[in-house]
Input
Amino acid sequence: MTYFDRLGFPVVYLMQCISHIRVYISDVSDKLRHAILRRIVGPSFSNVAMTQFEPTLKRYVQQFKDALQGTAPENNGRIDMTDWFNRFTFDVAIS
Output
């Protein structure tokens, strides 16, 4: 399923554009650049977008829990959570 922002751009396309922007919103001092970044990123965090994304997030959370439960017994209950959170964050961010 492809999600579109309110201007009709596919969300995947917007995420690819955002990945090329090397400036973080918190570091932006120029109000114009901040406005542009907010216009690009903002719709992704609307109530509609979050509601549409919820099933995907739930699926990733369940996969994350299943992977941890499957890995823990193999390593005497020890898990490198940094590695797992990095994987989880990557999966959610690119979806």
In short: The chain has four helices and no strands. The longest helix spans residues 47-71. The chain has a mean pLDDT of 77. Residues 2 and 12 are 8 Å apart (CA to CA).
